[in-house]
Amino acid sequence: MPTTDSTPSCQCSKQSFTHKTGRFCLAAALAALLGLAAPQDSGAIDFKASGVWQVLTEVSNVQPRGVKGADTFGALQRFRIQLDAVASENLSGTVQFELGRTEWGQASTGGALGADGQIVEVRHAYIDWLVPHTKAKVRMGLQPLMLPGAVSGFSAVFCHDMGGISLTSPIYEGQDVRADLSFFWARPYNDNSQALYGEDRNTQHLDNMDVFALSLPVETERFKINPWAMYAMIGKYSLSGLAITNEPAIVAPRGGLMPVMGSNYAGFQNTFLPALDRAWGDGFWFGSTLQFQPVDELTIMLEGAFGSVYMGEIANYTGFGDTGRTMELRRSGWYAAARLEYALPFAKAGLLGWYGSGDDSNPYNGSERLPQYNTPWMVSSLGFGGSPVDEATWKVLGSNPGGLAAVIAELKDISFVEDLTHVLRFCYYWGTNSPKMPRKAHMSWPTRADGPMIYLTTTDTAWEVNFGSEYKIYENLAVQVDAAYVRVDADADTWRGAEETQYKDNYRFSVLFTYSF
198 — phi, psi (to 5°)? Predict the structure, then answer.
């Protein structure tokens, strides 16, 4: 997904404005744009505008399309405009507005007759400044915050837009080597819980989550390595008070940070969450990325991570249909991934593979999958949400490598005609979770409240084919055509009829026009 700054785009939560505030922001944006043409005195603020405006049509049977009587065809648009107020090379401010997602004909998103919905949103709003007499750069506000990623360009653990503070500073610059130090503090959640329970009733504590991360990128001409570590302080109620109807970027961390719960999150939140024996949970992660280019044509990329989240224990847990046993609210797992790319005269040939640890057969001892925050690990178009626009249909297989293993072969940047490129990708997946878990945890079929869209065991497989093309109509206007298909083969003996609740054949065909400036 293109973005209007140098930071990769993440599928992220949004902060909606009122109608009046939205009009004010548009008026301010227009005034700033008009100011671009006005003469400016020496030392005045320099305003710069950029944007990504997109119109998409698609046909699909993947949520939210084609399920429970929903239409398979849809048309939508999303416009982003970014204003940078630059005082000097040491100080600037940025705000990025988003108009959308607007479904054509849908009143709730402003696309019905009259087109007057309240759809102006803030995506980014931050200050950049340089610490005086140093090379340390500070960014404060709503911003993209992410851990390193090499295989897909995105972290498999943490990558979203949210409020926080980030700091980057060079610590060594030699003739052939450069080393930096990066740190961020993020606050993904606070004060969202609308109803607390028991002794915590009518209070607003224990509902914040704070994340702290440190990385050390080291780079030479042909070699890059970026080790990192992250800690999360997780309040008992930090993931409560968020409706299941909210967008996946907000809701999915419940499943990404917690084990299989055997029921929907609403029931867990209201009945069992207050019984946790700890007020605060902890999350620890560490990992690294590595990129090596032994010759100009060949690039080798490696990455891996281990993470563990522990929220406490629940006595007499009955969510799995038993009379009641102690359940550990724990999730701990790892993954390792590798990617090879070789430049051909007409394309880049790539081979990607990974293995992610999976659950054992005991639902009461927590999960053995990688804990993560529903980040856009875009290794394929439909299975993992790597489509040209992230407002398209949901991911079929999930958003991270936990509980899965895969092999992906691709040809990208295929070009025989000027301004026209193609990508062809074939993917094969198999689960690493125990085939006994669905029965023991009473899993009718995992929903988005439990991490991956589809929970694959060692008896289940899936495969995927992608074909996409991009044609550059003008310097700033491109059209992208994307076709993707995912076949899911769930074992009937493992799921005992529950596999029928999920489509075996999943597809999407989309056409996207992007104007960027």
Answer: 60, -130
